[in-house]
Amino acid sequence: MKNIVYQLHGKYYLNITNQCPCNCSFCIRKNGNNVGTGDNLWLGCQPETDEIIEAIAVSGIREGEAVTFCGYGEPVCALEQLKGAARYLKEKYHAVIRLNTNGLGNLIHSRNITDELCGLIDSVSISLNASDAETYQEIVHSVYGEQSFDAMLQFAASCKAKGIGVCFTVVDVIGEKEIEKCRAIAQRMQIEFRVRVHIKDNDSY
Q: Is pLDDT at 205 greater than 50 in this prediction?
């Protein structure tokens, strides 16, 4: 269970699935099995909700702790487990919960899932990483093709409309021109924007 809950820089993260519909060019999963913690984040099998809750219960998470769903996979691929674990974190610890996501949850589940996140997820960090559908697909390689870009933007807008905090992120390797185009999208949508440094070496996290 050690690889379900891990700590990085003193903060708690939940690694609940290795499934992902994308194969991003700069994905850290291509380089190793951890993010500098020593914990192998490749799960032997998909954990069920009770296994995730059991891992949380022995993790040392405290009242009011900030917890992020972010691991070696797209968390919303395990949506029911995510909701169950988030509900437990809210009820037991009054945790502040963030979801790191590619924003393709509505495509993954063929429905708008943002209503299901309300009251459980306080904020979402969404990987933008491109300013148009073609460029996005060249970088992200989504199994859903170029429709993924608009679906991701719609997911962000829906989260924002429902009162969930939203931040777009990009990785600095996409180049300054593309970063500024992405920043303009965030400004137009009135969404927070952050540029992340690309880390090639997992141990440097």
A: no
Query: Can you list the alpha helix ranges (DSSP code H) found in 40-171?
Result: 49-57, 79-93, 105-109, 114-117, 133-140, 147-161
d(CA 97, CA 183): 25
Q: Residue 44: what pLDDT?
A: 86
Distance CA 111, CA 130 (A): 24
CA dist 154 and 11 (Å) reads 29
pLDDT at 200 > cutoff 70: no
Residue 203 has, within 13 A of its CA and on its CB side, a CA count of: 0
44-78 burial string, b = 16+ CB within 10 Å, else e? eeebebebbbebbeebebeeebebbbbbbbbbbbb
- pTM beyond 0.90, yes or no: yes
The mean pLDDT value for 11-38 works out to 84
**For residues 192 and 84, what is the distance between their CA atoms, to the nearest angstrom?**
28
CA 201 – CA 205 distance, rounded (Å): 8
Residue 23's φ and ψ, nearest 5 degrees, are: -140, 65
